[in-house]
Specification:
Rossmann fold, 440 residues
Length: 440
């Protein structure tokens, strides 16, 4: 029996290296499994009772043996591996080449060169350890296998499972005495099984003329053989081709990844450049808006600054009115002072600087000196005082003192309600002037 179709045969690959036979890439294909199941059904229909079994170590043969054991209900100890005698023929440098093309060339070589004993027709040598064998060398292994079986078993029906179709055909030729050059006329197909092989049955097959398909194969094989010998590199090892294909795929994937990275980097660079341009445009727009609104100096005035300016302004008026003993306290005529006093509802005496002793409750309620002193001595006025010289600082202290006295006298001369209204009016005037300057 020949094992079912393997995955390598399905892939059109001829593998004959003994070291590679156990690889799972040489296991049964789905079609091969169905072929083996059908062969077991044939044995059941024919009533053939298999009692012993031997199979090659090739992966396809091991899978076939498992199916046979299951289908025929045999004990596992009755179907055992045969380590070397059932191995297929090594094809040397043609190993792992295209099965269809190489097999036809080998068949043609055997027909034309093998001879009766199969001593001729050797494939080219290989440097990877794959044997380059003739049909005669494979026959030697088969003879050893038959000798062993005759010693171990007597009266048993033995099922031999081969990894290729040439091994069982060679055994048939040996039994029937058929020239080995005709061995491929008896070649087995994948999953094929033959029963009761003997001298008569083999010679009956040999008496039939070869089929036209077989003759066509031999003719094509001669042409393929001539081409292989003329150009040994024309038939490439499929392992090498597969490796080169995988290398090419990896190279393409790497190039695609590099192109993708370059594209992503380019997009990121463009995005950053556009982002910088946008930031520059935004900054430019902000500068233009500040310029249109008067810039930093002409922009809107902080309310806190306005309030402080109002208080400081009031203090400045009082200070300017106490320049010395020979001058008018407020630097204006008495008539103007009286007019201003009437508008602000302030006593003329207070405006002219004529002091009087304030009542204790008024001083307590007003606390003007403390307010003015606080404003004149807070952190906002320190920058100006630090820039003054020693002489100027002394004069400023005297003016500050006089301002305190004048403000106290002025504030004591009118009611608190009038003071609030006058103060609010001063702040309003300052705000209006500030807005006019900002609009300009």
């Amino acid at each position: 029996m020949r094992a079912g179709e393997s995955l390598l045969e399905e892939d059109d690959t001829w593998s004959s290296n003994p070291l590679f036979l156990t690889n799972r890439e040489a296991a049964l294909s789905d079609l091969g499994q169905r072929q083996v199941v059908e062969a077991c059904r044939y044995l059941k229909r024919e009533g053939i009772d298999v009692t012993q079994g031997r199979y090659s170590l090739a992966a396809s043969c091991a899978d076939t043996a498992d199916i046979v054991v299951e289908q025929l209900k045999l004990g596992r100890d009755r179907v055992v591996p045969e380590f070397t005698y059932l191995d297929g023929r090594g094809v040397g440098a043609w190993d792992f080449a295209s099965l269809n093309k190489t097999q036809e060339a080998v068949w043609a070589m055997d027909v034309d060169e093998a001879g009766i004993s199969g001593r001729g027709g050797r494939p080219p040598e290989n440097d990877d350890g794959t044997p380059a064998e003739t049909l005669g060398e494979q026959v030697t292994r088969l003879q050893n296998c038959i000798s062993l079986l005759e010693t171990l078993y007597t009266g048993d029906t033995i099922l031999l499972i081969f990894p290729d179709g040439t091994g069982p055909a060679l055994l048939s030729c040996c039994i029937g005495g058929i020239p080995l050059s005709r061995v491929h006329e008896f070649n087995y197909d994948s999953g094929e099984i033959r029963y009761d092989i003997n001298y008569d049955s083999i010679n009956a097959l040999a008496a039939e003329p070869p089929s036209q398909d077989y003759l066509d194969i031999i003719q094509r094989g001669r042409e393929e053989l001539a081409e292989l010998r003329r150009n040994p590199d024309a038939l490439r090892n499929k392992k090498d081709l597969k490796f080169e294909e995988e290398q090419e795929k990896e190279r393409l994937v790497l190039e695609a990844r590099q192109l993708e990275d370059a594209k992503r980097n380019q997009e990121e660079r463009i995005r950053q450049e556009h982002g910088g341009d946008k930031r520059e445009e935004e900054e430019k727009r902000k500068v233009e808006e500040r310029q249109r609104s008067g810039g930093e100096d002409g922009g809107p005035v902080n309310p806190a600054v306005v309030a402080f300016a109002a208080i400081a302004g009031g203090a400045g008026v009082a200070m300017s009115g106490s320049g010395g003993d020979d001058e008018s306290p407020v630097g204006v005529s008495t008539a103007d002072n009286e007019s201003t006093a009437e508008e602000m509802d302030i006593s003329p005496v207070a405006v002219n600087g004529n002091s009087r002793q304030p009542e204790e409750d008024e001083v307590t309620r007003l606390g003007v000196s403390g307010v003015v002193n606080g404003m004149l001595t807070n952190g906002d006025m320190e920058d100006s005082s630090e820039n003054m010289t020693a002489t100027g600082g002394t004069a400023f202290n005297e003016e500050e003192y006089m301002a305190d006295v004048q403000v106290e006298d002025a504030m004591e001369s009118f009611e608190i309600e009038d003071y609030d209204e006058a103060w609010l009016g001063s702040i309003t005037d300052i705000l209006e002037e500030t807005e006019v300057d900002a609009n300009k």
